Amino acid sequence: MTDGDGTTRPHELVAQLRALGIRPGDTVLVHASLGAVGPVHGGARAVADALLEALGADGTLVVYTQTPDNSDPSRWPVTRGYAVPAREWPRLRATLPAFDPERTPSFGVGVLPEEVRTRPGALRSGHPQSSFAALGPAAARITTGHALDCHLGEDSPLARLEELDARVLLLGVGFSACTAFHLAEYRVPGQGTRLYGCAVADGKGGRRWHRYRDVDFDASLFPALGDSYASLPERPVTRGRVGTADCLLFDLPQTVAYASKWLIEHRPENRP
Fold this sequence. Notes:
- The chain has helices at 10-20, 34-37, 43-55, 76-79, 89-95, 112-117, 139-143, 157-163, 180-185, 222-230, 252-265; strands at residues 27-32, 60-64, 123-124, 132-135, 167-171, 193-201, 207-215, 238-242, 245-251.
- The strands form two sheets. A seven-stranded mixed beta sheet has the order 3-4-2-1-5-9-8. A two-stranded antiparallel ribbon has the order 6-7.
- By secondary structure, it is α+β, with helices and mostly antiparallel strands.
- It has eleven helices and nine strands.
């Protein structure tokens, strides 16, 4: 039900989330487009409140609070959407602010992650480019120990979410936004890597430039991968609507297991 002006009421969001399959006590990783959800009384705060109410006191809400803009200036056409002259790169590497889990805003993931990460009690993992924020009883387990040289692999919150039998909610976004698929990329033998750079705190009140090698991610196959998974006979993906958004809900561990095999079969050298 919506108001006459098409605005969704918060209690209706809760009912829609429960109808979709969100259960009290779930741990849910949410990727969302609030624009797709449409007008909601209370905006992003009301959407976060609805998710937390649907999950209940024993549930945990998780969002991806990435900061890819904290990157080597040579990569800014990809991570920021614009280029800077090469002569500026050394100065920028020396002056780019260090990542601060409590203060650095997320970048490029919409409004909801900022709403969640800035709430009292929210915890955030410490990766300077690929952090996650969580609210709920499992938040500390999920966000602790995120290694500086591991974006989204075994030493990241995604692996902890897998251990917790978490679920993924794509709220008005498609499979291209599914970070869980990146965990599967780490399990593809021979997966390519590349060098990353970012500014981190040095533990002495200052900052330093940190370089590390990690997976060279490629999300170009994620839409096809997701469609393949959703079309399985056992119907592992639940579809529904929240507000005006088309939504997908599925279990993270099973999805990663399927994705790991699918990506191996569909890696470039194995494609017909």
